[in-house]
Amino acid sequence: MSIIEVKGVRKVFKKPVREPGLIGMFKTLFSFKYTKVEAVRDISFSLNKGEIVGYIGANGAGKSTTIKMMCGILTPTEGKITIDGFEPYNPKERKHVLNKLGVVFGQRTQLWWDLPLIESLVILKEIYDVTDKDYQERYQFLTKVLELDSFINQPVRTLSLGQRMRADLAASLIHNPKILFLDEPTIGLDVLVKDRMIEAIKEINQRYETTIVLTTHNMEDITDLCKRVIILDEGAILYDGPIKSIKTKFGDMRNISFLSKDQVNLEHLRNVLGTYAKIDEVDGYIHLTFDLSMISVNEVLKTILDLYRIEDIKIEENSLESIVKKIYETKQV
Ligand SMILES: Nc1ncnc2c1ncn2[C@@H]1O[C@H](COP(=O)(O)OP(=O)(O)OP(=O)(O)O)[C@@H](O)[C@H]1O
């Protein structure tokens, strides 16, 4: 059953036309001239309970605008959004939506800066009217999966970035929201803390069946967490479906990079493999990119090993990162 419904949503911003210079700045203040920015154009999708979806797109694609409309901070110019049946931006329905949402913005904290983390959690318990029993259960679970114990009594301003992000995630979940919006939840985190964060998000999703909308430019997070991805471009949806299918659509590509003890004659290698593989040389390493439907890894390896004595070799799948880069460039899936 779908918990979020977005139907034919459009958002147009009016921006005052600014004239150059200081006088222009004053004129702008009293001017009635506007241009229109269509941040979101006719988008529709629905999310089921417990789904984790990656909501991605280049800078300015319209991600934040959609999330703000789903949270009720902005009202769509056209179309309709429902969260568990209620419109978040409708003043009469808003109160039914707020306690269903949790939000984490990687760049900003929502915690009280000077208070110890534990105090913030208690305040949130009161604000959201969480029962003692529920609070205890969530507190135990969240302190464990997010490893909050060692800094729970410290004021938030003294926390490291990794600690603060975990604290923010815990705070957004104290009222057990049905939906969690995560905006760049791992930005700036070291590999270990990032992995902990990803694992915690998975555990939270499994335990509480939380529906998660993840906005990020980090494709590793998307691959680690999401089966489904929605790709936005200039306010419209370019792709909505399983990550697996984009990979198939773009060809099942592999990259082989190798360092040879022998001189590699690129012309010769191109003559042997050229129609099947793209061949480049960077810093002494030869990089081959090829489509598995054209030639197998085995065949490519055999060719290389027959021709050269190999010092180092690496085989990689084409990353989601490179696929998405191509989609942003070509604006096509
Ligand atoms: N309040 C506003 N007034 C005018 N234009 C706006 C406003 N908010 C967003 N926009 C414009 O709408 C478009 C979409 O912006 P949005 O912030 O939704 O993009 P985004 O996909 O979240 O980008 P990023 O990855 O950079 O955060 C941009 O062109 C932006 O300049």
TrEMBL record:
Keywords: ATP-binding, Nucleotide-binding, Transport. One of its GO terms (molecular function) is ATP hydrolysis activity. It comes from the Bacteria. SUPFAM superfamilies: P-loop containing nucleoside triphosphate hydrolases. The keyword Repeat does not apply. Pfam families: ABC_tran. Gene3D superfamilies: P-loop containing nucleotide triphosphate hydrolases (3.40.50.300). The keyword Transport applies. Residues 17-259 form the ABC transporter domain. Coiled coil: none annotated. This is ABC-2 family transporter, ATP-binding protein. It comes from Acholeplasma oculi.
